[in-house]
Amino acid sequence: MVMPTGIATSGFPKVEARIKEFGDSFDEWQRGAGTLILAKRENGDYAATIGGVTLSIPRQVAKTYLVSRIIFALCSLFPNLTVLWTAHRTKTATKTFTSLKQFAGRKTVAPYIEGVRSVNGEQEIRFTNGSVIMFGAREGGFGRGFDEVDVEVFDEAQILTEKALEDMVAATNQSRFESGALLFFMGTPPRPVDPGEAFKMRRREALVFAPEQFVPAEGEDALYIECSADKNVGRPGGPSVDDIEQIKKANPSYPHRTPHRSVLRLRKNLPSDESWRREALGVWDDDTEGDRRWSDEFWSSCGTKEAPPDGVRSFAVAFSLDGKSLAVAGASKTDELVHVEIVDAARVADGWSIDDGLEPLADWLAARKERTAQFSILGKAGVSLVTALKEKGVPSSMIHAMTTGDYFSANAMTENAIREKKVSRPFGEAGDVLDAAVAVCDAKTRGSGWGWIATVPDVDKEPLEAFCAAYWAARTTKRVPGRKQVLL
Predict the structure, then answer these.
(1) Cα 204 from Cα 211, distance rounded (Å)
(2) 324 vs 457 pLDDT, higher one
(3) Domains in the chain, ordered, with CATH?
(4) Is the CB of residue 223 less than 8 Å from the CB of residue 37?
(5) 130 Ramachandran zone, left/alpha/beta (phi>0; psi -120 to 50)
(6) pLDDT tens digit sequence for 223-262
(7) 180 has a pLDDT exceeding 50
(8) Among 48, 168, 417, 444, which is disulfide-ready with 422 (CB 3.0 to 4.6 Å)?
């Protein structure tokens, strides 16, 4: 827990009294969290009005209950309060709206409610005093264009892009709330492939003020609360991921609010130990894991499209250092830009894998030599592929074994092309493979250039390297094949 500075009082007692009128109550941990969430300075401003409230809390701990009850109470106490409740997915936003619609229908709550709207894609709960809670999904663009917003809730904050954050936070600039606007960021630790930079950044900033992790400290203008098991849970020498004491540590609502059967049900639906550590035990990956050079916003600026029917074609094959994995990319250069596709290796030759040898891949590439300008091979393990291509009649002038300098140039050129919008990328399954690599690949300086490094053990960097190598091949080759045809 990292607290904001200058706390003099709190608006929580009024909120708790209203919640008691509604017929609900808070547990002790929720009471403490609520007191800090609504903590105020001497001038009456919320202590966390600038930096916001960040809650990294596992599933089934009742964080939605805590935040929703606070917001309902605030809406009933303060006239004309505007609240935006957003989730990444429409399904999550609708589920929360449905739950709170039922709460609004209680006999004790209904006198404060003017009406509930859930038609034409608009989901909102209006109060008799002019306050309103509106619900929507960020994936559908909800939250853009609003102004005079007083409270924003970012549910599923582990999937929150910097672009969405910029679009929505600006809506609070003209808040009329007497104690200042409030921003809630609540979620579970992000997966390596999640666009979780915004959530991760808030945690890092909080830990600057708490060098000894989880030791209470003052964090200037933000509140950070994290519930989690021991960091070494599920690791060699650490406790088991199913250790009941670890579950108790991570979930302050267990077992009096979250019964053991609910924990077992969640475990059944999260069989992966890694997913269980993040979502049920609240344990973050190492801070170095999941780092990326290209932010989600930067990568999204590289548009997606289908492979063009014409253009000068090139291919690139990137091998891992140990030669046990590879990725294939194809590029098509037109006057406008270079489009790069990731080729599914298994599609190259009906279920082929690298363990079957390089002959099927060499056959597939050689069959395209008449319509290809260049084949670029990246990685020392690609020597055998170069030999195989020559044996199959591919001219040596078409085959380029990339040097370390070429590799550095390919990475820098591709990054600059994305910035200048001179390259496009695939979508669909091929795009998913590439997105997964981009999400966890960071740059590592090597002499005069930089190369890619995967920051998690279970994601390959080769699709990203092939993407860059194919772009480089398309831009640097001088050859123009006599025929132009479909890229792949």
Answers:
(1) 10
(2) 324
(3) 2-227 (3.40.50.300), 296-476 (3.30.420.240)
(4) yes
(5) left
(6) 999 999 998 998 888 899 999 999 999 999 999 999 999 9
(7) yes
(8) 417
Here the tokens at position 349 are 């030759």
* 3-state SS, one letter per residue, for the chain: CEECCCCCEECHHHHHHHHHHHCCCCCHHHHHHHHHHCEECCCCCECCCCCEEEEECCCCCCHHHHHHHHHHHHHHHCCCCEEEEEECCHHHHHHHHHHHHHHHCCCCCHHHEEEEEEECCEEEEEECCCCEEEEEEHHHCCCCCCCCCCEEEECCHHHCCHHHHHHHHHHHCCCCCCCCCEEEEEECCCCCCCCCHHHHHHHHHHHHCCCCCCCCEECCCEEEEECCCCCCCCCCCCCCCCCHHHHHHHCCCCCCCCCHHHHHHHHHHCCCHHHHHHHCCCCCCCCCCCCCCCCHHHHHCCCECCCCCCCEEEEEEEECCCCCCEEEEEEEECCCCEEEEEECHHHHCCCCCHHHCCHHHHHHHHCCHHHEEEEEEECHHHHHHHHHHHHCCCCHHHEEECCHHHHHHHHHHHHHHHHCCCEEECCHHHHHHHHHHHCCEEEEEECCEEEEEECCCCCCCHHHHHHHHHHHHHHHCCCCCCCCCCCC
Are the beta carbons of 128 and 114 closer than 8 angstroms? yes
Specify whether the backbone of 64 is left (phi greater than 0), alpha (psi in -120 to 50) or beta. Answer: alpha
Q: What is the pTM of this model?
A: 0.63
Compute the mean pLDDT over every residue in the chain, rounded to the nearest whole number.
88
Percent of the chain with pLDDT over 90: 58
Reported as a single tens digit per residue, the pLDDT across 354-403 is 667 788 899 999 999 998 999 999 998 899 999 999 999 999 999 999 99
pLDDT at 487 over 50: no
CA distances from 297 to 36, 324, 458 (A): 32, 32, 24
Q: What is the reported pLDDT for 226? A: 96
